[in-house]
Amino acid sequence: MPADPRSVLDRPAPAPDATVAYGGHPDQVADLRRPAGDGPPLPLVVVVHGGFWRAEYDRGHTGPLAAALAALGYPVAQLEYRRTGQPGGGWPGTLADVLAGVAALPGLAGPVLGDRLRPGPPLLVGHSAGGHLALYAAATAPGTVAGVLALAPVADLTEAYRLDLDGGAVAALLGGGPAEHPQRYAAADPRLLVPIPTRTVILHGRLDRQVPMGVSRSYAAAARAAGSPVELVELPECEHFGLIDPESSAWPEVARGLRTLHFDH
Predict the structure, then answer these.
(1) Environment class of residue 24 by beta-carbon count within 10 Å: exposed (0-12), middle (13-18) or buried (19+)?
(2) SS3 for 169-219, per residue?
(3) Residue 3 has what pLDDT?
(4) What is the DSSP letter of 30?
(5) Please, which residues bridge with residue 231 across strands?
(6) Quick one: what percent of the chain has pLDDT higher than 70?
(7) Nearest to 125 by CA among 41, 69, 196, 82
(8) Phi, psi at residue 233, to the nearest 5°?
(9) Three-class SS state of 44
(10) How many angstroms separate the CA atoms of 214 and 204, rounded?
(11) How far is the C-alpha of 190 from the C-alpha of 137, rounded, in Å?
């Protein structure tokens, strides 16, 4: 494992094979990567990046993750979306972008990925705030999502607001706290949107200091109690960034989680 877990955020990755637009804004795009080898068609994997929904974090830091998934034989799309600190980002633009992108990408990817792409809804791999967005998409538009692999997701916005994660990140996304905007939390908080029918695997490291393990535990408990097909895997030696680093000790669990989802479909 790298000495600095954050090193993955700046690590170079091969350039994508194509970039497609699902809307008119410069950030309503996705980078596509063809799968390596000549294996069977697999579902599109849409990577939804984290960064606490803030403009300073974009899809670039998921390049190593996306390239590693393509090396495993998956067709991959790295989804971008408007973020807080940008015109149109936050409520409701950030959430609307993810819904639109997830729905459009299988069709947009077809001409590029061709016979390596299995028809149907994509699998979503979301990290941190991207894990929130993946869970939100599955809860809000389940017909557009085949499964979710949520990596250290911000799965409980009310609790994340209470904990003041990343210095007010949830308030920046939704315009304030749950007392000020209860309807926004009711619409956007995965913890309040259970049950969901989408098969979901959550991976979370017990050493995570950015998104505490308890956030995933509370979400998973509520989801399972409501009848949702959710599996939570706790990684004792993993922190926040190892989940998106193909060079980390957590990577085999990430690959296993994705295999679990695509064999279900």
Answers:
(1) exposed
(2) HHHHHHCCCCCCCHHHHHHHCHHHCCCCCCCEEEEEECCCCCCCHHHHHHH
(3) 65
(4) E
(5) 201
(6) 98
(7) 69
(8) -115, 120
(9) coil
(10) 9
(11) 9
The total domain count for the chain is 1
- Indicate the helix (H) or strand (E) that contains 161: helix 157-163
Tokens representing 181 are 């905007």
Structure tokens belonging to residue 226: 């409501």
Question: How far is residue 36's CA from residue 175's CA, in Å, rounded to a whole number?
Answer: 42
Distance between CA atoms of residues 245 and 69, nearest Å: 11
Question: Measured between alpha carbons, how far is 27 from 29 in angstroms, rounded to an integer?
Answer: 5
195 prior amide bond cis, ω within 30: yes
> What is residue 112's predicted lDDT score, i.e. its pLDDT?
92
Q: How far apart are the C-alpha atoms of 227 and 222, rounded to whole Å?
A: 9
Residue for token digits 């998921």? 62
Q: Which residue has the tokens 């959710």?
A: 230
DSSP secondary structure string for all residues of 47-69 = EE--STTBTT--GGGGHHHHHHH
Q: d(Cα 41, Cα 245) in Å, to the nearest integer? A: 25
Structure tokens belonging to residue 239? 């922190």
Q: What's 111's domain CATH number?
A: 3.40.50.1820
User: In the prediction, which pLDDT does 160 show?
Assistant: 97
**Could you list the residue range(s) of the whole structural domain that residue 121 is in?**
5-263
pLDDT for the residue 2: 52
Positions of the chain with pLDDT under 50 = 1
Structure tokens at 144: 């557009």
Closest C-alpha among 126, 128, 136 to residue 192:
136
